[in-house]
Amino acid sequence: MAESYLPLLILIVLALGFGAVVLVLPALLGPREINKQKMQPYESGIIPFTSPRRRFPVKYYLVAMLFLVFDVEVIFLYPWAAVLRDMGVFALVAMAPFLLVLVLGFVYELKKGALHWR
Question: How far apart are the C-alpha atoms of 64 and 71, rounded to whole Å?
Answer without folding.
Answer: 10
